[in-house]
## 1
Amino acid sequence: MTVPYPRSDERRRMVDLQIAARGIRDSRVLAALREVPRHLFVPPPYDRDAYADAPLPIGRGQTISQPYIVALMTELLHPKSVDSVLEIGAGSGYQAAILSILVRKVVTIERIETVAAHARTSLEAVHADNVEIVLGDGTLGYSPGVPYNGIIITAATPEIPGPLKEQLAEGGRLVAPVGDRILQELVVLERHGNRFTEEHHGGVRFVPLIGKHGWED
Ligand code: SAM
């Protein structure tokens, strides 16, 4: 039996009280949130609050998302073990670590070099060997891995970048916070040929997606 990472009681409480209690039902997603040590993705002194119901600062004005939002966006992706997923906005690397348990391959793009370097260290610490971190503008996607069964944008975008829609596989799902720089709505697109169905899943708040098909710096 593998030994769980420290603070497993805090993770169990986090999942029970903040995530399952608020309607997340996918048992694989809940298990992944119980497993990944969020405190290893949060820099001190905020790591002591790693299992609180809140986003936290990770430096350079960026944040690790609230655990419930990570769980909700992950569930909305409908991740399958054979899938390849592209994340835009690696941030701390926590969302990528959760996905790494649920799918075959994760590519995550981050535009800030120091943020990407910290994410890499944390992902190595949890042996998330199926995650590739790419430095660059994620609004352009990442063509070497095309097509992706799932795409998750973890920064606020004025609209879904066209290149990302093109890089989605048939039947694939794309989850993103779409709106202005302050408030957004969680949108899910699902691809059927050149048609995309669209679902809306309530209000969220993310830091802005900066790039060619996002906001200006
Ligand atoms: N998924 C992250 C996690 O698990 O910690 C949280 C992401 S944080 C809310 C948003 C991140 O998106 C920031 O690190 C920011 O630098 C990054 N970002 C913003 N615009 C980007 C772009 N065009 N390409 C790649 N990363 C971008």
## 2
Amino acid sequence: MWTPPALDARQQEAVALIGAARRPLFVGHERPDADVLGSQAALADGLSRRGAEPVICNPDAPESGFSFAAPACGFGWDKGRRLPQHDLIVFCDLSEVGRTAGLAERLLASPAKKVVVDHHRLPDDPFWDALFWDVEAAATGVLAARILHALDVHLDAEIARGVLLALVSDTGFFRFDNTNAEALELAAECARLGVRTADIFRELKQGREARFPAALGALLTRTEYLDEGRVALIVEERELGLGGLVGVGDLALDVLRSVGEVDVALHLRELEDGRCKLSARSKEPAEVHGLASGLGGGGHSRAAGATLSGPLPAARERLLRELDAVDVRPRS
Ligand code: AMP
Ligand code: MN
Ligand code: MN
């Protein structure tokens, strides 16, 4: 049985704002991932059961392959125009307004109250009016389920699909060390409602293009070992032409972590616009949050990221310098 933990006063305040909104606007981080989309889908469908008219506007369109999880209102994205009409803004899976990229200015200019629903380490400069936060939650989708429960919205198969999508993706199908009892209990609740992890695995991980294996191979052959083999790094130039291929970087990072000596796995990828995206992962007890935040990013203890300015060789140098400066391997 999934029994959500009791809400603290700050969380109750956030729930009250969400429950009172007629037209909540949901916003996630740039290049929205399955946790953004799954938590938004669950909240949007759940709140519409109570008569609200939710709307979703993310900084970017969802990657292909997420249409199976779309809520009734659809996954909208920024087309550079005015924000959709709204009386509340709910930020899902982010707590730094800068991660909404081109939307940030318009969001901050809105007179509507702003609620953050998130499980990342919090930044020092809050921009929100209310916060529903738990760093122990495996995914923002878990927080979505807790909010709906607090509003007396029962999980059904549709809502559960969003929750489980968020859960499986942020826990790597329950393999990462953020997987906890609540994640498993909530997943069991979703299974009881007929939502199968196998179906989500099929949608997310088994619909790839024929060039995927060769692309993974190309990334893996770029593996460099640093720090006596404890750090593994893949640097991906734009010329490699893998830019649009979803999931290949995550899988490469999984392979790097499969090496016994490796406790920090890094993927530095040159984006189309010349900036460089760092994805960092680690094995317990190594931590990569400090590394990512030192480079202007953030995330979780063992899964973090940052966007660096280019060109790629300079970004690589900055990464290596930061790696020297921070202690990714705290010894207790
Ligand atoms: P990624 O490597 O993009 O899958 O991100 C790993 C984790 O770090 C996710 O929880 C992201 O939300 C977070 N993250 C990625 N990039 C950034 C960034 N620039 N700033 C803050 N957090 C980030
Ligand atoms: Mn995310
Ligand atoms: Mn997340």
